[in-house]
Amino acid sequence: MTPVMQVRDNDCFAACIASLLELPLGAVPNHPASGYLGQIEKMQRWLRRLGWNYIEMRADSGRMPWVVMGAPAHVILGVRIRKCGNLHAMIGVATRRQIRVVHDPSPVQWKRGQYSMDSVAFLVPAAAYQCR
User: Which residues pair with 91 in a beta bridge?
Assistant: First the structure.
């Protein structure tokens, strides 16, 4: 994972994808005008062309799904900023007890307590889904 910073208010998700794939921000599509689900759908199509799948799970009352805990991978965290209610994306690493933020692409650098977990997502190689 190579940290990539966002350059506009609405490209934190693209910056997280760029960080995980170690690409420049400009190489990753950004579709915030499509709305949340539209942006995810367009990103999923783009990632599949690169051999990846995007899998997202909702958090329950700010707690991560049990399957995430202890995952030896970087994950994309969907968080809700408490001050304004906006959605934001960060990168975290799951441990047995918590998810630790390892990269916030925002120049604000939100601190724990200023946001709540909304979802967690993985990038999974598309080959993992192919039946043989």
Answer: 76, 103
Domains annotated for the chain, with CATH where assigned, are: 12-124 (3.90.70)
Burial of 79 by CB count in 10 Å (0-12 exposed, 13-18 middle, 19+ buried)? buried
Structure tokens given for 114: 């200023």
Q: Quick check: 124 and 57 in contact, CB under 8 A?
A: no
Query: What pLDDT is stored for residue 99 in this prediction?
Result: 74
Mean pLDDT across 90-108: 81
List of long-range contacts for 44-50, beta carbons under 8 Å, 24+ apart: 47/17, 47/123, 48/126, 50/21
42 sits in which H/E element: helix 35-49
**pTM for this structure?**
0.84
